[in-house]
Write a structure and sequence with these properties.
The protein is mainly α. 49% of the residues lie in helices and 4% in strands. It has five helices and two strands. The longest helix has 34 residues. The two termini are 33 Å apart.
């Protein structure tokens, strides 16, 4: 069993990564809003509006403690993916086009492999049970 000191170090590392991702999201939100403000023709603003909305949704999920987990199956989204696309809300399986249904890994496997590098972190505060007994999210 890991010591309390190890858990605290993991938690501090997790918080530092979350703060890094929050800063990245805020920088990208500012840039996306600048792009949106510079678009003269409203009919061409669709992609910029979508980008702003996606980043705002990611920040909201972060505030709610749901950031970094797939909105469909609750699997963790790898930290490297979040660095490239911090607004990502779906895991690779759920985000793939043409897939019929993806349920992700088991809840215990997701807990053991957090995207932010914290072994064993249980990020289930937004989890709910669906009628089928699978874990879902409250998002």
């Amino acid at each position: 069993m890991a010591s309390l000191q190890t858990f605290m170090q993991d938690y501090d590392h997790h918080l530092a990564r979350l703060e890094e991702l929050r800063e990245l999201l805020e920088e990208r939100l500012t840039a996306a809003r600048d792009v949106l403000a510079g678009i003269a023709v409203p009919s061409q603003a669709g992609p910029a509006r979508e980008q702003v909305a996606a980043i705002e949704a990611a920040l909201e999920r972060m505030d709610r403690g749901l950031y970094g987990t797939c909105r469909r199956c609750s699997a963790f989204i790898p930290y490297e993916v979040l660095l490239r696309a911090p607004q990502e809300q779906l895991c690779a399986g759920c985000g793939s086009a043409g897939r019929t249904e993806h349920t992700g890994r088991t809840r215990s496997a997701r807990r053991a492999e957090s995207p932010l590098g914290t072994e064993g972190s249980a990020r289930t505060e937004g989890s709910v049970r669906t009628d089928a007994g699978r874990a879902g999210t409250a998002a």
